[in-house]
Amino acid sequence: MELLEKVLDDKNLFEAYKQVYKNKGASGVDGVTVDELGHYMYQHKEDIKEQIRKRKYKPSPVRRVYIPKDNGDKRGLGIPTVVDRLIQQAISNERLKRKGLIFPIDHYLRVHTTI
Known about the structure:
Blueprint: H1 3-7, H2 10-23, H3 34-53, E1 63-68, E2 74-79, H4 82-98, E3 102-105, E4 108-111
Antiparallel strand pairs: 1-2, 3-4
């Protein structure tokens, strides 16, 4: 199976969804929250996968927020949409599997690190 199809595999996308959902986080510019992500993907998953296959998918702009630093300055932070985070996570999962850093164990993924 080609790498792109492994990234877009429903099982990999579901694992990515679980990771994004578990991490929570703020919504991006589209306002879709992690709580709404499951329903959104149910409705739009096939369209998103087709856009990616055709190289037509465009990630949304990040939502820019500024968080205070200890010295009184502010640090800019870009918050991607939850859909973009899911796609990024799906790519990351597959890349880590290819490098032999993730092993599926009883429906869970364990990260193996060596120091």
